């Protein structure tokens, strides 16, 4: 890939940093490649650089789990829209499915994932030759395989067939960087291989300062999700449903019917999943780590969801719910899909903001004749009570996979493989119970149970960068895609099968003579 001729150079040592800081990347001096990759500290730094693309941020960069998945992906779905503060034309075109292969956000998603994969490939080539503690070396290589699998998992779901690069490319001639796409099935096979090898060598837990790194349980949980995705649309490898069940049960705790010994469970209070004071708790299987106001390591999502003009708060209201018509209500949104007793609703959203300057409440009423006194719901999952208007950042971690999702993966896969069994009900009902909802009605058909799991996934995981991927893979009883119907339901009448995958960025095609555009985008 001609576009990624980066050389991983000197980064400050991280071995003694706190859990929030270990992902930080700070170039201090230029070193040649021959001078680097000599010591244990070099190896640790090189792996930390692979983590870097999960959480880095700042005024000039968006990375996948720090804003880019929202501006470059979620806006294309059925739950979110760009608010008044989102003026970028690439973001707004995505939100109405009017994007093209020259869309900057679509390019950035591609570029940042491949840049991270490039760093992973450097690690996997260079670290084995460094002489240092073999146990630590094995762990670092396992972490790197986990991360490479995660980055490829995102790419294959976003773009379909993609180039599969597994070696450190350091060519002289630009033409040597040209590489054709690999079929999605081959990409998934490599993802499975990396995660299986990672799970075999990674530890179950970490002590400070390494809390937050990839674990064996995280590799198994992510692999269960990979299996479920392959069994779903568009691949439809139905045998993978049972693989997803089996792998999920290796990570589930014994109380939930699994054999895992990782200490995972739901926290009792849904709000504690997201509040920075409770980060890396027993529900977080693997998360992007954030620290507010610290060298661009803060989560930049929170101010984007805050109403503009509140004295003392630095909100720009760039992210809002998508409104659509349902019945007589022209301001229906995902907020109204929650039942009034669902405890998740008032954690996921707030209806007003209290100014720290004058103590007054600020809201945004809606002139909705169908719902008297209606007002705008604002996303609230990444709120940070300890943050100030000056920092403009949150310390809230972003869960990449958490225990509630593992339970939902297990429930869905078990239903597809074996029908709505007692095991499937148990996993889904545990998530519902924490939300304050009654157990799901007994005696449902497989199709009815599937629809119930889909709805609870949508409500449980909204604003966590999951919905777009679910829109792609979910289906009806006849195994037909529901992507177009779900998009048209919320007013995106131009939704078409081609929108399931993003187009390959045109700049990449221009730089790579072997790279071809996705068929429906030609």
Radius of gyration: 22 Å
Elements, N to C (H/E): HHEHHHHHHEHEEEHEEEEEHHHHHH
**Which strand order does the major sheet show?**
1-3
In percent, how much strand structure appears in the residues?
A: 5-15%
User: Low-confidence parts, pLDDT < 50 over ≥5 residues?
Assistant: 1-28
Largest sheet: 2 strands, antiparallel
- N/C terminus separation: 21 Å
Q: Structural class, judged by helices and strands?
A: mainly alpha
Look at the structure and give the mean pLDDT.
92
Number of helical runs?
Answer: 16
What is the number of beta strands?
10
What overall form do the CA principal axes indicate? globular
Proportion of helical residues: 25-40%
Protein name: Membrane protein
Main location: membrane
Domain RagB/SusD: 317-521
Family: Belongs to the SusD family.
Report on this model:
InterPro entries: SusD-like_N, SusD_RagB_dom, TPR-like_helical_dom_sf. With 522 residues, this protein is mostly helical. The chain is 38% helix and 6% strand. It contains 16 helices and ten strands. It has a two-stranded antiparallel sheet with strand order 1-3. Strands 2-10 form a two-stranded antiparallel ribbon. A hairpin with a 2-residue loop joins strand 4 and strand 5. The longest helix is centred in the N-terminal third of the chain and has 26 residues, at 134-159. It is globular and about 70 Å long.
């Amino acid at each position: 890939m001609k576009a990624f001729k980066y050389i991983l150079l000197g980064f400050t040592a991280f071995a003694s940093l706190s859990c929030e800081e270990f992902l930080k990347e700070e170039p201090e001096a230029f070193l040649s490649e021959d001078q680097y990759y000599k010591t244990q500290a070099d190896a640790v730094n090189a792996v930390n650089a692979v983590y870097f693309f999960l959480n880095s941020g700042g005024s000039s960069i968006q990375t996948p789990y720090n804003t880019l998945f929202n501006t470059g992906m979620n806006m294309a779905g059925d739950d979110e829209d760009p608010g008044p503060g989102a003026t970028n034309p690439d973001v707004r075109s995505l939100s109405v499915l009017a994007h093209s292969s020259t869309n900057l956000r679509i390019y950035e998603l591609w570029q940042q994932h491949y840049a991270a994969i490039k760093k992973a490939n450097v690690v996997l080539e260079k670290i084995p030759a460094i002489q240092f503690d073999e146990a630590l070396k094995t762990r670092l290589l396992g972490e790197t395989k986990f991360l490479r699998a995660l980055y490829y998992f995102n790419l294959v779901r976003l773009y379909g067939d993609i180039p599969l690069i597994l070696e450190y490319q350091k060519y002289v001639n630009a033409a040597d960087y040209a590489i054709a796409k690999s079929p999605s099935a081959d990409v998934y096979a490599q993802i499975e291989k990396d995660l299986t090898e990672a799970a075999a060598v990674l530890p179950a837990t970490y002590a400070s300062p390494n809390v937050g790194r990839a674990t064996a349980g995280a590799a198994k949980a992510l692999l269960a999700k990979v299996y479920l995705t392959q069994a779903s649309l568009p691949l439809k490898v139905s045998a993978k449903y049972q693989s997803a069940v089996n792998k999920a049960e290796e990570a589930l705790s014994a109380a939930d019917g699994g054999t895992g010994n990782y200490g995972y469970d739901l926290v009792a209070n849904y709000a504690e999943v997201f509040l920075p004071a409770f980060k890396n708790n027993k529900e977080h299987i693997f998360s992007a780590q954030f620290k507010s106001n610290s060298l661009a390591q803060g989560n930049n999502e929170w101010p984007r969801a805050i109403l503009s003009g509140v004295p003392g708060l630095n909100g720009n209201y760039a992210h809002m719910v998508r409104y659509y018509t349902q019945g007589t209500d022209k301001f229906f949104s995902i907020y109204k899909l929650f039942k009034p007793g669902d405890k998740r609703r008032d954690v996921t959203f707030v209806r007003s903001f209290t100014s720290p300057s004058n103590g007054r409440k600020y809201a945004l009423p809606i002139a909705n004749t169908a719902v008297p006194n209606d007002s705008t719901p604002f996303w609230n999952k990444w709120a940070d009570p300890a943050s100030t208007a000056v920092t403009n950042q949150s310390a809230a971690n972003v869960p990449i996979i958490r225990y509630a999702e593992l339970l939902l993966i297990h429930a869905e896969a078990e239903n597809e493989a074996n029908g709505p069994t007692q095991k499937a009900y148990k996993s889904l009902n545990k998530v519902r119970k924490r939300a304050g909802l009654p157990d799901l009605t007994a005696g449902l058909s497989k199709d009815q149970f599937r629809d119930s799991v889909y709805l609870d996934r949508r409500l449980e995981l909204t604003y966590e960068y999951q919905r777009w991927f679910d829109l792609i893979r979910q289906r009806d009883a006849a195994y037909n895609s529901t992507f177009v119907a779900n998009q048209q339901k919320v007013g995106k009448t131009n939704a078409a099968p081609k929108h399931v995958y993003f187009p390959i960025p045109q700049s990449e095609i221009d730089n790579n003579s072997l790279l071809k555009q996705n068929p429906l985008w030609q």
